[in-house]
UniProtKB/TrEMBL annotation:
<dbReference type="Pfam" id="PF00043">
    <property type="entry name" value="GST_C"/>
</dbReference>
<dbReference type="InterPro" id="IPR010987">
    <property type="entry name" value="Glutathione-S-Trfase_C-like"/>
</dbReference>
<dbReference type="InterPro" id="IPR040079">
    <property type="entry name" value="Glutathione_S-Trfase"/>
</dbReference>
<dbReference type="InterPro" id="IPR004045">
    <property type="entry name" value="Glutathione_S-Trfase_N"/>
</dbReference>
<protein>
    <submittedName>
        <fullName>Glutathione S-transferase</fullName>
    </submittedName>
</protein>
<dbReference type="InterPro" id="IPR036249">
    <property type="entry name" value="Thioredoxin-like_sf"/>
</dbReference>
<dbReference type="Pfam" id="PF02798">
    <property type="entry name" value="GST_N"/>
</dbReference>
<comment type="similarity">
    <text>Belongs to the GST superfamily.</text>
</comment>
<dbReference type="InterPro" id="IPR036282">
    <property type="entry name" value="Glutathione-S-Trfase_C_sf"/>
</dbReference>
<feature type="domain" description="GST N-terminal">
    <location>
        <begin position="1"/>
        <end position="81"/>
    </location>
</feature>
<feature type="domain" description="GST C-terminal">
    <location>
        <begin position="86"/>
        <end position="207"/>
    </location>
</feature>
<dbReference type="InterPro" id="IPR004046">
    <property type="entry name" value="GST_C"/>
</dbReference>
Amino acid sequence: MMTIWGRLTSINVAKAVWAARELGLQFERIDVGGPYGGLDKPEYLALNPNGKIPTLDDNGYILWESNSIVRYLAAQYGAGTLWPTDPRERGLSDRWLDWQATEFGPAMGPAFIGLIRTPEDKRNHQAIAESVARGNKLILLLEKFLADGRQYLAGDRFTIGDIAVGCAIDRWFLLPIERPATPLLAQWHERVSTRPSAQGVLGQELK
Ligand SMILES: N[C@@H](CCC(=O)N[C@@H](CS)C(=O)NCC(=O)O)C(=O)O
């Protein structure tokens, strides 16, 4: 029995759910976090002492940190597909999970919090503008990266890198911000977000 804990409007839960669906796994998802609460309950903290979502329970094997969950699911159930077995090929996919978590995510964080979670009269417009500028610079890097004709981030097939970055770019397209023209990124986003496994996972209202 597999359980993923977390509301689907969370980018980090979306990654885990998309990976599980892409791998064709049977799982139950339990809504916690955000309006559902429950993250400070002792039972939840026993699973995830961070009090954050997502948490994975794979038949008693408990794991938290969304990108670690994506890597685990892919390695355990998707060797040769989502999880390239050649270490060099895998590295070219895997780096995008770190790029999302340590570069793009932190760059866009203040814009997301400011525009989605902060009342208009309390917004720090300068911090939002700086965040959007940092994020858009990274977006242009991604656009340039796609210019060699690759279909997916690690080459010709869909891998874990497309999941982590796909969830982040999906939200970038939904944010009420000025965006530079990125035709290749838009095509890649269309390619990954129309996969059956992404239906009902991407395109969530920003919360
Ligand atoms: N580094 C963690 C971050 C987890 C995180 O910050 N999750 C957010 C949702 S995206 C959360 O738990 N927020 C509290 C809530 O939803 O109530 C991961 O990638 O799993």
